[in-house]
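INPUT
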Amino acid sequence: QKEVEQNSGPLSVPEGAIASLNCTYSDQGSQSFFWYRQYSGKSPELIMFIYSNGDKEDGRFTAQLNKASQYVSLLIRDSQPSDSATYLCAVNKGDFGNEKLTFGTGTRLTIIP
Amino acid sequence: DTAVSQTPKYLVTQMGNDKSIKCEQNLGHDTMYWYKQDSKKFLKIMFSYNNKELIINETVPNRFSPKSPDKAHLNLHINSLELGDSAVYFCASSQFQGNTEAFFGQGTRLTVV
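OUTPUT
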């Protein structure tokens, strides 16, 4: 089982709709969770992080965390063509002082005008 | 002002050569990382340094040698390059060890021919 799993996509969503991106992780000891956006040929860019169970909203983005189910998701409301990118889920795990980010393989999202 | 900058952006070299990639961050962060992103876009940590001290070494061949002359700089030297080393190498930094909200440089695309 991969440490962090994402559906590779491509996920196609009409402009203006809600895009839903999902991620599961295997280590119950994982403490914090991140969503990065990566445009083709560019570097990953942090868009959201979440530490506690529940929802966290930032503008059009909502991160959802369910530690019991080891599941984290990202919702993008009112999707725009500029949201077309690969979305990487990352999980922070490790002993104190040796924490590291483990990434999923990413979900490619395409917003259709 | 670029927060995390790497040079060069592109590197094409022959098998067996030795090459270096340089990274500098002006964010005042304590922790710096090297990540490798392969052709399938999988992003994996290679090394992390905290205040010039090596913290994480993720079973990387010893042909790869990182060096951190100070906490703002982290370089990567690669000896005897192999075809399989072709990838995009990202430098990143975070505020301190344990805070893994990482900010990435623009990447160095290494092609070994």
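end of record. The mean pLDDT of chain A is 92.
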